[in-house]
Amino acid sequence: MPKRSKVELQSELSSEQYRVTQEKGTERPFTGRYWDVWRDGVYHCICCDAPLFRSETKFDAGCGWPSFDQPISGALTEHLDTTFNMVRTEVVCTQCDAHLGHVFPDGPETTGLRYCINSASLRHEGDDS
To answer: What is the model's pTM?
Structure first.
């Protein structure tokens, strides 16, 4: 799928989805659509529909955002993020560069990683949006 323009994305996404994925925004904790969803399936990028995470890798980190300990192989690209006087690792969709969230080294023993992802950047398979 070819990468969509900012104009196309702005017309297709909600204002919150656009702000998060294209302007590197963050939704408020405990407000996103998927922070407390535990259905089986795959989470996809809201911008390009690339598969990002399998539901069996989701866990409750208590932070208010969907958290995963492992992405689908090759789905994410990492970038150094030094905004707001912090040093973090941003994760974006490899296919379309949409901002998804950040990865932290405080996850479960299986990988030691916590991918803290904005619900606004995701679509769970089977959802209508």
So the answer is: 0.92
Q: Which residues contribute to the annotated binding site for Zn(2+)?
A: 45, 48, 93, 96
Q: Is 129 part of a structural domain of the chain?
A: no
Q: What is the dihedral of CA 38, 27, 99, 60, to 10 degrees?
A: -30
Instruction: Quick: pLDDT tens for 3-44.
Output: 788 899 999 999 999 999 999 999 999 999 999 999 999 999
Active-site residues, by number, are 116
User: DSSP 3-state assignment of 99?
Assistant: strand
What is the span of the domain harbouring residue 78?
A: 6-124
| Spatial distance between the Cα atoms of 32 and 79, rounded to a whole number of angstroms | 23
Strands (E), 32-129: 42-45, 51-54, 58-59, 67-68, 76-81, 88-93, 99-104, 114-117, 122-124
Output the domain CATH number for residue 36.
2.170.150.20
